[in-house]
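Support case: zinc ion complex. Customer-provided input:
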Amino acid sequence: MVPLFNVKNQHLKTNFIKFKSNMQPLKYLAGYSSDIQDQVQSLIDQDKLGQFLLKRHPEIHAIRTDKALYDYTIDIKNQYLRKSQPLSKVIFDDKISLSHQALGLHSYVARKQGAKLKAKNEIRISSRLKKVPEGLLRMVVVHELAHLKEKDHNKSFYQLCCHMDGDYHQLEFELRLLLTLIDAGKNPYS
Ligand SMILES: [Zn+2]
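Agent response - structure generated as follows:
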């Protein structure tokens, strides 16, 4: 009789699991503890992560144009950062990827003008944020506005983010959860 399981098979199985998890790392959640990553993975495995997000944020925002995004951003800026440098432009940009670093966003665009490099205050928001809940868009807008005052991701940068939105860290976590689901082909908002 052939045993169903032997040491050799066990070894293969372990390698397979390892291989599989290497193929699908929680790349947006790499900065969080392994405890949190395990909990998220378990919600994904049970197909419950989408429900979790829908409960927290039932709907997507209604900001459809660059003009509406500009107005939305200026409203927040006027409320919290009235005295900081003016913003020349706020747009959705197809070319901005959300997959790297601090969600891969850019506030400062260096423009060559004559011999001088002049920094121009533009906020470009990834087009991937066109169909997400308002809170998740707001978190990214707040992040970019904070860069008008603080270029680095230091303590005062995050204090400023939390001043503009007390839920900043939770919203960033939830945006990362949504991006994880989108990459897995399980966008709860599509
Ligand atoms: Zn940043």
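Confidence is low (pLDDT under 50) at residues 1-23, 104-118.

Case will auto-close in a few days if no follow-up is received.
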